[in-house]
């Protein structure tokens, strides 16, 4: 799941909801999923001066963010702090306000979300490093520091059934040009279909002008969740997906490379309260190797464990941290 599909439209209503949620969290609301397993030592070393100091960890309330939030909680605790679990906050804007007001100390945010939603930019930047640098520089004015981004990029993509991809040698979006017109069928959200930066300009960008190379009858409109199943069962050949969604893995879909770099970057990065980080700069160094292990395939697997297998996000985060050696099973 992804929260950035409507990031270009942040309304006053959402802002008011965010303000209301901030009031609630300011009153000490704890996540309903505040459970985190006990653990033993691993490669994360305790930071000198941490001394069990409280660190407020916040996340949004969709699957990937819950997992990432629990990874942060575990890493912060392993570094010798006392993580205050404020994960599972409903919505991007409330989390942003908590960070802006310094009511939280660390979160994992997406570069594209910050640039388009919080900073009000009209167009995303498709180069991940340039997009990170842009939000990093802008947020210094807000007392927030962006740490090194992970390799995972929860952006838009088109996916295809694995067998169809192999049969037609499809690895990248531009390969769609090699198919006959009747095979260029798409499942997309209604919003993506009509957006100024959505389906029509994407097709133009890939030299597949709508109407001529891709007839309107070849484009089916679906709810977000239905796209994955429709692509898997052959209702269409190409489905609009989010690149870290666990259903990609569970339904044996192949994500096509965005080889002409149309979609903006949504890499995840730890974001710190600068006042806190100035006191404990080592925490940024502690989180860097954790973030470096989080690529798209890893997030697909972790998300699928929650969304498909029904596991608890805290247990999924714990198992991954143990498997990577960052922490260990409790003795």
From TrEMBL:
Coiled coil: none
GO cellular component, one term: ATP-binding cassette (ABC) transporter complex
One family name in Pfam for this protein: OpuAC
Entry-linked CDD domains: PBP2_YehZ
ABC-type glycine betaine transport system substrate-binding domain segment(s): 54-321
Top-rank taxon: Bacteria
InterPro entries: ABC_Gly_betaine_transp_sub-bd
GO-annotated molecular function: transmembrane transporter activity
Name listed for the protein in its UniProt record: Glycine betaine ABC transporter substrate-binding protein
Organism phylogeny: Bacteria, Bacillati, Actinomycetota, Actinomycetes, Micrococcales
